[in-house]
Amino acid sequence: MEWRSCYLDIVLVPLGFLISVAYHCWLWHKVRTQPLTTIIGTNANGRRSWVSAMMKDNEKKNILAVQTLRNTIMGSTLMATTSILLCAGLAAVISSTYSVKRPLNDSIFGAHGEFMVALKYVTILCIFLFSFFCHSVSIRFINQVNILINSPQDPTSIVNPDYVSELLEKGFLLNTVGNRLFYAALPLLLWIFGPVLAFLCSVTMVPVLYNLDFVFGFRTGKKQVDQVNNGCTDCVCESV
User: Fold this and answer.
1) Which of 78, 143, 155, 178 could disulfide-link 134, Cβ–Cβ 3.0 to 4.6 Å?
2) In whole angstroms, how far apart are CA 146 and each of 81, 171, 236?
3) pLDDT per residue over 111-127, tens digit each?
4) Cβ atoms of 164 and 148 closer than 8 Å
């Protein structure tokens, strides 16, 4: 494979991937240190309060708890099903003779030899498989919470609101990872049409995710925000 035909793939695709990884590392740091400035940390704090409220007044709110968790399971099931269906489609393309790719050879930038085509499809396939795995394990944890949240309260039992909250946070963490892997596959899908589109998609997704991941318009004083963040950091760090 000549450098002239593949240098865009070697430069742009890893660069876009590193930009996405750098953003998520910074987001992880913010979740660990200032959880209430992020949607992930704020929601984690709210879910812990929700579990405590559901288990404290379980006789009146047991149906509400089950229905809420069922809706979450349905969302994870949809994403897992979508991921495995895309894996099946990609596996069918990989096992073919790449005839669907040949008409595009003259209209894209970058390399389009058999090795590069196989690399693109196998990379996308692996991303979707990992996304399916994360959503499947997430469903497992949330199913456990669905049962334990209605268990009788016993002071000597290990099944308490903290334990149930920890299981729920593990389920939501895996659900978040599965979704992020699914999002990461979008630039790789565009990589089929060339590395330029893949790079532009990776760069565009960063500001979009930034606006979805952080809390804006927080009107509370800075000192009070810092106090609340310090109080919530321990519980969020334990869950993630």
Assistant:
1) 178
2) 21, 11, 21
3) 667 777 778 888 898 99
4) yes
- What whole-number distance in Å separates Cα of residue 205 and Cα of residue 17? 11
Judged by phi (left if over 0) then psi (alpha if -120 to 50, else beta), residue 39 lies in: alpha
Identify whether the C-beta of residue 121 lies closer than 8 Å to the C-beta of residue 188: no
Our CA dihedral for 87, 90, 94, 97, rounded to 10 degrees, sits at 150
Dihedral sign (CA 37, 41, 47, 48): negative
Could you tell me the two tokens for 223?
A: 């000192």
Q: Does an H or E element contain 224, and which?
A: helix 222-239
Average pLDDT, the chain: 82
Residue whose pair of structure tokens reads 């000549």 in the numeric block: 2
pTM: 0.82
Phi then psi dihedrals of residue 97, to 5 deg: -95, 15
* Cα–Cα distance for residue pair 183/5, rounded to 1 Å: 28
Tokens for 209, please give them. 């995710």
Q: Please give the DSSP secondary-structure letter assigned to residue 135.
A: H
Residue 148: how many other CB atoms lie within 10 Å: 16
Q: Which two tokens stand for residue 152?
A: 């009788």
Phi-psi label, residue 217: left if phi above 0, alpha if psi -120 to 50, beta otherwise: left
